[in-house]
Amino acid sequence: MAGAGRRKSNNWALVAPLYLFTILFVGLPLIYMVYLSFMSRAKVWGFTNDFTLQNYLQILEPIYMSTFGTSLKLAVLTTAIVTLIGYPFGYFMARLGAKAKRLMMIGIMIPFWTSSLVRLNGWIIVFRSNGVLDKLLMWIGLTDEPLKLLYSYPAVVFGMVYALCPFMMLSVYSSAEKLDWRLLEAASDLGAGRARAFFDIAFPLTMPGLMSGIVLTFIPSMGLFFVADILGGSKVVLIGNVIQEQMTKGRNLPFAAALSVVLMLMTSCMLGLYRKICGNWKGLD
Amino acid sequence: MKRRLSLALTGVLIMGCLSGCGAKETGELNLFTWDGMFPQEILDGFEEETGYRINYTNFDYDEDMLAKLEEAQGGDYDYIIADDYIIEVAIEEGLVQKLDKSKLSNWENINPLYQGQFYDLTDEYTIPHGAGIPLIVYDPSQVSVEITGYEDLWNPSLEDSIAIIGNYRVIEGITLKTLGKSFNTEDLEDITAAGEKLKSLAPNIRLISDSNTQDYLLSGEVSVAFMYTSQVVAAMQANPDLKIVYPTEGLGIGIMAGFIPSDAPNAEAAYAFADYINRPENAAKCFEYLGYYCTNKAAEEYIAEEMRYYLTVPENITETEMIQNISQEAEDLHSRNWNEFRVLCD
């Protein structure tokens, strides 16, 4: 009994730094942000401690509501495309030999050594008018004049998918890796076709990886404002862009805080939904 | 042997420490401004001549500067260079000290065009260091119309071929100008009308970008760009065949200025630095490097001939207006108009 008690207190000492870290760097800033969102903006800079609901009322204006809509739409579209590319990739990667797996892993990881800003700017060199792609297409003879590919909605979607695909690939891979492939063999021995075996066995078993991939894609895609700035030429306005602009040029910190609170509530709802779906899957076991 | 070696090493260490302390005697200049404001040559020259060591720290946004200065209660920094509107706030908050002009032997060199402005009407607190006027630059070989003013940006022949900066006070300001209103109007009806007019510019906008806007013009991505002074200068240097337009409706001007915080740890160093950078030949080097309008009249003749045209405002320019802080309602309306406009651009 005494031994168990001691172990418990040791545990407490081990997790204390974690709690402290969470309180200091997550809890307190969060409280500050919620507090700030109910304050009034000062004349030029900063805020005053006067309670107001104005910041939240302002979010109800059509332009800001539609910005939330645009962000949500882009996040859903991005997540869908990332799933279509990332799921098969992660799944088949898990079936490769050890050496090929390692190579693939390195291939996915290496781009992370470079800042994502630099990588996005790299795409500009490829896609811009008279850029690498344009020259290539004209040389082949597919097009006669430079295309205008950048600074459009599709360019932003491309950037988002490019930035977030690895997260889906890796999380699907990690759950497909644990899959017992003998189950699939057994299914085909018992007469199931390849598709049936996949949908009845492999797909449900890799569901946790898919779901965490979706969360890892969906949540950041609500906030990746710099993709819209760089590849969208600031013409695609996401909620992240509005928050950033209100904090800097707009000099309206309380409004930026209110927008952030609403954004966090939205993503928390998505997380809640995810847990519920995952819970249901576990229940099926 | 070992002992002698360690003694020698100790000696070297002490010497190093002493020489380090020696430099400390005259002290440090805590310079606080954006990154890349001064050529290395000027920073090194100042250190060599005066013995002060420069401790250069940067900020990205004026607001960050003000926040840090507020936190330090006017201390920590000796010389700060920032934008006009934020200096107005800093002065109002008592974070800036009055200048002792007897310590500034080069004060007379400052171009009076940039003095007596709203943020420091009597020139008691600030020394201008560079001015910016966003201008239109276009490639005549790609554009079928002659551009003379902001209004021409609305020409339907420019569909999907203009790059603009992302500063909404400036963009809505030039729209107000086409309606004959002030950049700083607080009349909500005027701002609403400008917002409506701005929306009809959306089809012509290829992209909005604050950084390296000139690159899009140089690469042929766009044929017209409305951009900051440093970008105008960079574009013209890379391709002198481009055309600069000083729009007939009137120019919006912004001034960067240096000031000494109220509780600067080493105000003497700040005076020495302000004086050093305003020596005509030094100022010329600063502005050639910076690419903003030269605020030092005496320096103009030292600026390399091929750059002088771009770094000095033409004599016939008289219609200028500074962008100032406006009421919250007006500011909010601007920001809403801007977002509505941006959504339409795509």
What does this structure look like?
The complex is a heterodimer of chains A (285) and B (346). Chain A has a domain of 163 residues: MetI-like fold (Orthogonal Bundle), CATH 1.10.3720. Chain A has a two-stranded antiparallel ribbon. Chain A contains 13 helices and two strands. In chain A, strand 1 and strand 2 form a beta hairpin. Chain A has 285 residues and is mainly α. Chain A is globular, with a radius of gyration of 24 Å. The relative contact order of chain B is 0.18. Chain B is built from twelve helices and eleven strands. The longest helix of chain B has 25 residues. In chain B, strands 1, 2, 3, 4, 10 and 11 form a six-stranded mixed beta sheet that branches. Chain B has a five-stranded mixed beta sheet with strand order 7-6-8-5-9. Chain B is 41% helix and 15% strand. Chain B folds into two domains: 166 residues, D-Maltodextrin-Binding Protein, domain 2 (3-Layer(aba) Sandwich), CATH 3.40.190; 148 residues, D-Maltodextrin-Binding Protein, domain 2. In chain B, helix 5 packs across helix 6 and helix 6 packs parallel to helix 12. Chain B has 346 residues and is of the alpha/beta class. Chains A and B meet through helix 3 and helix 12 of A and helix 3, helix 4, strand 7 and helix 12 of B.
Identify the notable features of this structure and list them briefly:
A: 285 residues; mainly alpha; MetI-like fold; two-stranded antiparallel ribbon; 76% helix; B: 346 residues; alpha/beta; D-Maltodextrin-Binding Protein, domain 2; six-stranded mixed sheet; five-stranded mixed sheet; 41% helix
**Which architecture of the largest domain in chain B does the CATH hierarchy give at level 2?**
3-Layer(aba) Sandwich
Coarse morphology of chain A: globular
Question: Which fold name fills CATH's third level, the topology of the domain at 71-233 in chain A?
Answer: MetI-like fold
Outline the biggest β-sheet of chain B: 6 strands, mixed
Q: Helix proportion of residues of chain A, in percent?
A: over 70%
Residue windows where pLDDT falls under 50 for at least 5 positions of chain B = 15-25
